[in-house]
Amino acid sequence: TATGQAVVVIPGGGYRGVYVEFEGYATAEYLKSIGVTAVVVKYRLPNGHRFVPYADVANTFRYCREHAQAWGVNQIGVMGFSAGGHLAASTSTLWVDEITRPDFSVLIYPVITMEIGVTHKGTRERLIKESAVWNHHLADKYSLQKQVTRFTPKTFIALCSDDRVVPAENSLLYYNALIDLDVPVEMHIWPTGGHGWGFSAEKYVGKGKDPFAYARADFENSLDRWLKEVR
Length: 231
Description:
- By secondary structure, the protein is an alpha/beta fold.
- It is 36% helix and 14% strand.
- It has 7 helices and 6 strands; from the N terminus they run βαβαβαβααβαβα.
- The longest helix is centred in the N-terminal third of the chain and has 20 residues, at 52-71.
- The two termini are 15 Å apart.
């Protein structure tokens, strides 16, 4: 049932960890179910070396491009969650050649900007190490709405209005930057569901009701339809 699409999956974790179970392997199972090849990246964390996470994703793209013909893959996109969404958006805007440029981008409740008061504080501090001194050059470079060009890949964005971890303004900034440069973009904002819902409700077992249960089918159907449209 392979469709010829592949997705490099980047779990979140605030650049403190990599939530590979719920935002990595669960995502891969969903993608497999719709005929999309999934490659989950368990990337290294910055720890003072901000280029390291992106280098791991760029090398993943190089590996996938090299093996694409053998895998029956003709299109490779990227999907990221939270801080992994920041890394996916970095991959979509800071790429250096066509090999490392995604063919499409899916951003789920992503961190986009480094602007204090809008960004996720932990993501910013772990990536650019600025808890004491504000470095405007680095802040601008990693505020990815400022790095969008007309060559940024077509994008799907999903989030909830009541996200208390990564404010919705992050996604809105990126969406507006794409619109301004006529880059195709589709965004879905559900009223409730919070942050970190990913592709699995298992994390809520024994902890209460899945707050995104009412919208999961809508989210997955919308993404499935969009992936078909961008093939």
